[in-house]
Structure formats: structure tokens, C-alpha cells
Write a structure and sequence with these properties.
Its cofactor is [4Fe-4S] cluster. Helix 4 runs parallel beside helix 6 and helix 7 crosses helix 8. It is built from 9 helices and 13 strands. The model has no long low-confidence stretch (mean pLDDT about 90). It has about 250 residues and is an alpha/beta fold. The strands form 3 sheets. The protein has a 5-stranded mixed β-sheet.
């Protein structure tokens, strides 16, 4: 059994694989995970897998936003880019595509050729194109993320891509009387506008879309419509990095 551990900023994702067969996936709030299931000992993070209720694993491979902050005891550590490419190739069977991974607090756009990383760009210094931005905007609109992800038609023009100042602009549009569907569509379009320069640079007619933001159906529709490309959302977009860790563990 191989355990893939993706230490995200918002969630910790775990995948278990035996050979090429997926045995289970688990997700935890990041702060809850560190409080209840992990302790730092001698500079390393010791994860209590028994308390998590997980079967013993022969190998643990970790990646993610928090991998540089805490080294998991007994685990091999691999870069996020590598983990996400391995996961995307495993989930889609494709080898040439642009991978867009939008997580809780950062975004990555990766050009993949013949199953390998050819180029990549990241944005980990601003939450503008991340799940945190969508959570903030949904709260301002008084709707949940599922409702937000339904809307992409007749978007309100929003110019601020900042997760903080965007709230002020959105409140102004609410005061002007725009409908919730148009406001939600405008929010989804700001994500698209934020990642567009990175996506254009990679240039590919197939996009694999992963990360928690990939559950946003509106953003998928916007990319297909505006870029005239095929957008694939794998079955487990949020677990893509954890699955990539398992694949790496099986190959190494």
C-alpha cells in the first residue's frame, strides 16, 4: 500500500493505492488535521495514521503547499508540480496538455509534453485566482460555492482581481442593483482573466483542470467558450496531487 499525502493550504488530501488500484481517498481541514492527527517532533511532522483510521502503508510520499514548512517523518517529499503532472497523466491517460491547478491559496499552469513537465508558471503570492477568493466572494453574495459555480452568462464587469479589494468592488455592484447570477458570473470571469496570461503562454488545445476550484462548472464553461479548447476535469480533481504522490511511490 502506498500513501500519497497532499498538504494543502485549506485541506489535507490523502490517497491510498495498491499497484495501480485506488483503495481510498480522504480529506481533512488543514488546521483540524494538524491539531488532531499530527505533532512536530525533532523538526519533523509525525502523522498519526492509526488515529486517522488508515491501514499501514509501505511507503508515504508527500507534497503540497505545506511541504516546505513541515517535513513529514518517514516520507519521501516531491515538488507539487511533479505530483500534479503525475496525477493528471494517471487520471486522464493524456500525455500532451496544459494543466491548470487552482487550489485553496495558489494557482499553477503547467505545460505537459509526452507526460513530462515542459514549462510552468505559478502564482502563490496572491489569492486572486484561488479557492479562497471564491469563498470570499460567495460570502459577500450570500450564496454557497455550488450556487456560485452555476453562473457564467451576462457577467458583470469586475476589474479588481485582488481577493481583498475585489470585495469592495463587488459590494458596489450589489448596491447598483445587478442580479446575483450576473454578479456570480462576473466573479467567475475574474478568475479566468487572472489565469489567462499564463494559459496563453502555454498554448495547448487540451486543458486538464484540477484542484478544488475545478468543481466550478462555470469556469470550465468559460474556458471552453473563450479559448475554444477541450477542458477535461478528472474524476478526482481535488486529489490529483495525492494521486501523483502514489504514482511516484509506485515507480520509485
Amino acid at each position: 500500500m502506498i500513501c500519497g499525502l497532499d498538504l494543502g493550504s485549506r485541506n489535507v488530501k490523502i490517497a491510498l493505492m495498491e499497484g495501480n488500484e485506488l483503495k481510498g481517498t480522504y480529506i481533512y481541514d488543514t488546521m483540524q488535521f494538524y491539531r488532531a492527527y499530527a505533532r512536530k517532533q525533532e523538526g519533523k511532522l509525525v502523522v498519526d495514521f492509526k488515529r486517522l483510521g488508515l491501514p499501514p502503508a509501505e511507503k508515504v510520499v508527500s507534497t503540497g503547499y505545506g511541504r516546505l514548512t513541515v517535513e513529514v517523518a518517514g516520507a519521501a517529499v516531491i515538488p507539487e508540480i511533479k505530483a500534479h503532472v503525475l496525477g493528471a497523466v494517471y487520471q486522464t491517460g493524456r500525455k500532451d496538455f496544459t494543466l491548470i491547478d487552482l487550489g485553496g491559496q495558489d494557482s499553477k499552469v503547467i505545460q505537459v509534453k509526452n507526460g513530462k513537465v515542459a514549462d510552468f508558471m505559478t502564482n502563490d503570492k496572491c489569492a486572486a485566482s484561488s479557492g479562497r477568493y471564491l469563498e470570499n466572494m460567495a460570502a459577500v453574495l450570500g450564496i454557497d460555492l455550488e450556487e456560485l459555480s452555476k453562473h457564467y452568462e451576462r457577467p458583470v464587469e469586475l476589474n479588481s482581481t485582488c481577493a481583498v479589494f475585489g470585495e469592495t468592488e463587488l459590494i458596489g455592484k450589489i448596491v447598483e442593483g445587478y442580479s446575483i447570477p450576473s454578479l456570480a458570473a462576473g466573479v467567475n470571469y475574474t478568475i479566468f482573466k487572472r489565469i489567462l496570461p499564463m494559459v496563453k503562454k502555454m498554448g495547448n488545445k487540451v486543458i486538464v483542470f484540477t484542484g478544488g476550484v475545478a468543481y466550478n462548472e462555470a469556469l470550465k464553461n468559460i474556458m471552453e467558450k473563450e479559448l475554444n479548447v477541450e477542458v477535461l476535469v478528472p474524476a478526482l480533481p481535488q486529489f490529483n496531487g495525492a494521486l501523483g504522490c502514489c504514482i511516484y511511490g509506485g515507480e520509485s
